[in-house]
Amino acid sequence: MTAFDEMFPGASGPRRPYASYDQWLKDQDPGRLTEKMRDAESVFRKTGITFAVYGEEEAAERLIPFDIVPRIISGNEWRRLTLGIEQRVQALNAFLDDIYHRQEILRSGRLPRELIANNVAFLPEMIGLRPPAGVYTHIIGVDIVRISEDEFYVLEDNARTPSGVSYMLENRETMMQLFPELFKRVKVRPVENYPQLLRQSLAAVKPHNVAGAPTIAVLTPGSFNSAYFEHAFLADQMGVQLVEGQDLRVVDGHVAMRTTEGYKQIDVLYRRVDDDYLDPLTFRADSALGVPGIMDVYRAGNITIANAPGTGIADDKAIYSYMPEIIEFYTGRKPILGNIPTWRCSDPSSLSYVQEHLHELVVKEVHGSGGYGMLVGPAASKKEREAFAKKLAARPSNYIAQPTLSLSTCPILTEKGLAPRHVDLRPFVLVSDRIQIVPGGLTRVALKEGSLVVNSSQGGGTKDTWVLDD
Amino acid sequence: MLLGRTANGLYWMSRYIERADNMARLIDAGLRMALTRTQNASEEWNSVLLSAGADVAFSQKYTEYTASEVSDFLLRDTTNPSSVISSIETARNNARMVRTALTRETWESINEAWMSLKRLLASPIDERELPKVLDAIKRETALIRGSFFGTMLRNEIFDFYQIGTYIERADNTARILDVKYYVLLPSISWVGSTLDNYQWESILRSVSAHRSYRWVYDADYKPSNIADYLILNSRMPRSLTFSYRFITEHLRALAQDYGELHSSHAMSERIYSKLKNGSIKDIFDAGLHEFLNDFICDNQVLGDQVALDYSFH
Q1: Judgement on whether residues A231 and A336 belong to the same structural domain of the protein
Q2: Per-residue pLDDT tens for A123-159?
Q3: How many Cβ pairs closer than 8 A exist between chain A and B?
Q4: Is B104 on the interface with A (CB under 8 A)?
Q5: 20 to 30 A from B262, CA-CA: which of A24, A31, A228, B238?
Q6: Residue from A50, A75, A54 nearest A470 by CA
Q7: How crowded is residue A158: how many other Cβ atoms within 10 Å of its Cβ?
Q8: Contact at 8 Å (CB) between A367 and A316?
Q9: Res. A56 pLDDT band, cuts 50 70 90
Q10: Interchain pair A247, B7: CB under 8 A
Q11: Largest Cα–Cα distance in chain B?
Q12: Chain A, 325-364: which have a CB under 8 Å from a chain B CB?
């Protein structure tokens, strides 16, 4: 299976979006590039752009490896992608509103009822509750893979608390520091206004009874969280407070933070804490990361929580397989961006197909994330497949399966020069009274030759993503 | 607007940076003393540990007071919460927590200090390398101070940082004096032996003031001058009066910013005016040890009061 390479698809030289970059690259001294690679690493380490890896003893702070060859997308390709993403995000929000209110989609029979009824991602607490400005999922990361020149697919939607946007911004910052001359030669659309857009977007969905500029804060689980760097980065870039659960309490029907001058009201909370931990009075009682009583404030319409609780029902992997139906139901149109064909193992005939074809499929846990608990059939040993088959047989409804797609590749710089590696793309979408997508996103790259797993927790790296202004 | 937790983080971040710096100076002085006065070396190391407030913890682990053991304990021991390695780790953890309150340069200087000192202190230090290591510690903390002063806005964030720095510094200077107060007493100073001369120099050295002392008092070491210098001199950057000038100034700034006075304001004003109007003769007459003891206690109470007044917890 040969993958489509986005820079050099054949022997005939680079694809058009890469032409100018390729020319520049040819003039570079390989020694200098290797040196720049090291510079990049020291920049990241110095600024502390690290992430913690769960399950590693030494409270390891690791760098996500950064590759200096950019992933380049033409203006045309990008326009097509954004249309598809916008449509999808609209459908996701419409679906959430419907599923927590009239449930028309269930009535119409397009979506089986048990998919919702038995789903832990569905929050009964959200039934009948309409968030300020009617927006459920404000910040979305849509994971997109490419198969060929013209085929893009959505791998999954991240409608809860997608992360990685700080890497998109820091990767660009680093590239501009390392290769300023390159940005003169190639016209790349800027991404650095993302924090301002995020702030405006959050302000636009403030509770309706807040007059004037709302007070916004970012809620982090704390400095030991794996994505703490990003939480601090975004709060800093937006110029808002970075708060923890211990800073907050409910005062006079509002959520307030403890400041050096007493308690101050918060109107919009961009939370990076999972639903389960948000309110110990409503969800997990042992949570120290949330705010006791915040759900009451929310129900009273006195705070905006972004993203709203319960959005997980929209990016659940079992729901994912119904996205084409969902999009058509709410937008009245066929999806512009396709789904990857998906077998739902809860369905007996799909299950037996999956069981027979384990060696060629990717099997994922319905509620899993981060690349954990999945089987990449073609790469797994016989023993691994057999062990996985047992788990699958025990709880079929916990799994979905997809064909092993030959993800496109993009070259990375190795010690032996350029070498192709598989990539995916996560653009970031902001929803308020409008939908905004910053031209770019996070390109994740599997650094191991032939590997298809791009997750940073599993040895993936990142690249700067260029959308050309052409 | 500043979170109480952030104010707390800034306060402790600066205290631990200051502590790491002071520790390096203290070891430096001990090292010099041990080199020049070999027969009293272990006694000298003991007073270094006393000044560092680490004598009890040390004696639980070691029986002998040698340069390599004491300096290892004060520099590298992670079970000692005031060792340089622990201090810089705590400072950096606090900085990470309050990162949004710091300029990029300040954060990077702390992060880089942490990276380089961790590397430097990773394995036991050969005695010959010790001066180089101490220099590196002082240099890293100076870089942090430099980027902080060069880039931070003069607002509440700056105030809490400064209050932490000077409460820590005043505590450190007072402790150094208190450990050696007896060599400064007039009754002993009449003896004027060479032993006292070394002791006096060691006190000055531990606050890096052995050269500047001569610019101010020109002649020989005199105990009352040394005490005056470290307690009352308003231009000596590590003196108690100097420290309180800044603590008071930054508390006043907070009162003005927030339009509210707290008990900590009255407390710091009282301590400051006692220092400003004090004379070394009065202090000696009433008892140097008592004076220092009271001061150390007051200073700590003030720190707790600031935490209370500004909702640190």
Answers
A1: no
A2: 999 999 999 999 999 999 999 999 999 999 999 999 9
A3: 59
A4: yes
A5: B238
A6: A75
A7: 23
A8: yes
A9: very low
A10: no
A11: 58
A12: none
Strand A442-446 vs strand A428-431: parallel, antiparallel, or unpaired?
Answer: unpaired
The answer to whether residues A385 and A442 belong to one domain is: no
Smallest CA-to-CA distance from A6 within A152, A143, A148, A142 is with A148
DSSP classification of residue A381? -
Task: Specify the pTM.
Answer: 0.88
Rounded to a whole number of angstroms, the distance from the CA of A232 to the nearest CA of chain B is 6
Mutate to test the interface with A, among B97, B159, B312 (most CBs of A within 10 A): B97
A277, A302, A327 — which closes off a domain?
Answer: A302
Answer yes or no: is A328 within a domain.
Answer: yes
- What string of DSSP letters covers B231-278? II-SSSTTSHHHHHHHHHHHHHHHHHHHT---HHHHHHHHHHHHHHT-
Do residues A349 and A286 both lie within one domain? Answer: no
Same domain, A97 and A181: yes
| Distance between B100 CA and the closest CA of chain A, angstroms | 5
Confidence of residue A249 (pLDDT cuts 50, 70, 90): very high
Domain of A159 in residue numbering reads as: 16-207+303-340+405-467
Six-digit token pair at A93? 């929000």
| A45 in reach of chain B (CB within 8 A) | yes
State the best of A259, A266, A272 to mutate against chain B, taking most chain B CBs within 10 Å.
A259
Residue A260 with chain B: CB contacts under 8 Å: 2-4, 7, 156, 160, 254, 258, 310-311
Which residue in the set A47, A242, A258 is minimally distant from B108, CB to CB?
Answer: A47
Model confidence pLDDT, tens digit, residues A102-117: 999 999 999 999 889 8
CATH number of the domain at A359, please: 3.30.1490.270
A-chain residues within 8 Å CB-CB of B93?
223
A262 touching chain B per CB within 8 A: yes
Residues A175 and A269 in one domain: no
Interchain contact, B100 vs A258, CB within 8 Å: no
Determine the Cα–Cα distance for residues B69 and B136; give it in Å rounded to an integer. Answer: 20
CB contact under 8 A, B311 and A259: yes
Nearest in space to A157 (alpha carbons), one of A4, A355, A319:
A319
Q: Is residue A234 part of a domain?
A: yes
Contact A262 B311 (CB under 8 A): yes
Interface pTM (ipTM) of the complex?
0.84
Domains and CATH numbers, chain B: 1-152 (1.20.120), 154-313 (no CATH)
pLDDT in tens, A322-372: 999 999 999 999 999 999 988 988 889 999 999 999 998 989 888 765 566
pLDDT band at B196 (very low <50, low <70, confident <90, very high): low
How many helices (H) does chain B have, and how many strands (E)?
A: 17, 0
- A-interface mutation test, from B5, B98, B160, B265, most A Cβ less than 10 A away: B5
Nearest to B5 among A45, A247, A264 (CB): A247
By three-state DSSP, how is residue A423 classified?
strand
